[in-house]
Amino acid sequence: MLLAVLSWLCSSLLVSVSGGKLPEAEVQIEVLHRPFLCHRKSKYGDILLVHHNGYFENGTMFHSSRAEGDKQAVWFTLGIREVIKGWDKGLQDMCSGEKRKLVVPPALAYGKEGRGKIPPESTLTFVIEVLEIRNGPRSHESFQEMDLNDDWRLSKDEVKVYLRKEFERHGYAPNDTLHENMMEDIFAKEDENKDGFISSREFTYKHDEL
Question: Going by C-beta distance under 8 Å and a sequence separation of 6 or more, which residues neighbour residue 185?
Fold first, then answer.
């Protein structure tokens, strides 16, 4: 349900009066550019390569991937909370080359605690360009390729080997830290019986939050 910013800020008052449930926070999405041809759209489990700028409500930029750090675009897996919830929600169904503006409420950003230079309860605006979309380790198509010993379950090493091969296949240097973080996130969610492996059933199961 799409909510106006004012109604979101006043939601606690409405709940106290009506006794109803808190409305779910939503991301405001504006498509700034969409390519004429779109061969695939992003979905949960895909690995995205993005450039992004982040702004406070007053328009002050607090981060730019093109201007800060190593000035490189950022890889992450969509839908497993490697990024803020607002990105997971707002970057679905995007094409490679598409650019969007996301207005993310605090509940889907850094909430009551804030983070680093982000104050608590901050509504943030991001301008995000998707440069590339790849099959991620959560995609059904990848399971057999990842299962190197054909035992119908994935080890942590198999997942990391797959990630390294995918990066090298597309001409990018492997990133062991990123691979390790992605693998740990996947196992935390999918290894239901905590046996150190992801079975084919665990791998393909669709969680409500994903």
Answer: 77, 80, 81, 82
Task: Measure the N-to-C terminal CA separation of the chain; round to a whole number of Å.
Answer: 18
3-state secondary structure 32-82: EECCCCCCCECCCCCEEEEEEEEECCCCCEEEECCCCCCCCCEEEECCCCC
Query: Count of H helices and E strands in the chain?
Result: 7, 8
Confidence (pTM) = 0.59
Q: How many Cβ atoms sit within 10 Å of the Cβ of residue 17? A: 8
Mean pLDDT of 132-159: 80
Q: How many CB atoms lie within 10 A of CB 44?
A: 17
Cβ burial of 69 (10 Å; 0-12, 13-18, 19+) is exposed
Angle at 187 between CA 182 and CA 192, to 5 degrees: 155
Residue showing tokens 């991937």 = 65
Which pair of structure tokens corresponds to residue 12?
A: 């606690």
pLDDT of 61 over the 70 cut: yes
Question: What per-residue confidence (pLDDT) applies to 19?
Answer: 44
Let me know: does 78 contact 45? Beta carbons within 8 Å. yes
Q: For residue 34, what are its two tokens?
A: 């969409």
Q: Do 18 and 29 form a contact (C-beta atoms < 8 A)?
A: no
- For the chain, the 3-state helix, strand and coil shares in percent, each to the nearest 5, are 30, 25, 45
Q: Which residues pair with 104 in a beta bridge?
A: 124
